[in-house]
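haha ok so turns out i had the wrong file open the whole time. this is the CORRECT one, sorry everyone. sequence first:
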Amino acid sequence: MALNNIELENFRTKIKEASEDLKINELIFHTEWIFDGPTQSLKIGGVMLHNHYNFPVGWEGYGIEDLEILEQQGFLKKTFETEKDPVTLEQVTKYLII
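then structure:
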């Protein structure tokens, strides 16, 4: 589910805040299928952002669409992406926070 414009701006602000706090400008998006459902996480420097910066998760949370929008807007630049594993659906995408 994609975030609305206000949620997307808050999402961008929280990513920037975390990046500045941690003094790291690489964002890592990790997805995989665990047990009966998909999971995803955002990390900066090994810190899970949804645990420390109150990111929305689950059906009401962020998704790859939101990261793609931030990339199109010039806030993020994709630097690395693995192929999606056909069994576990695991995929890692790295972004530079500009």
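The first strand starts at residue 26 and ends at 34.
again sry for the mixup
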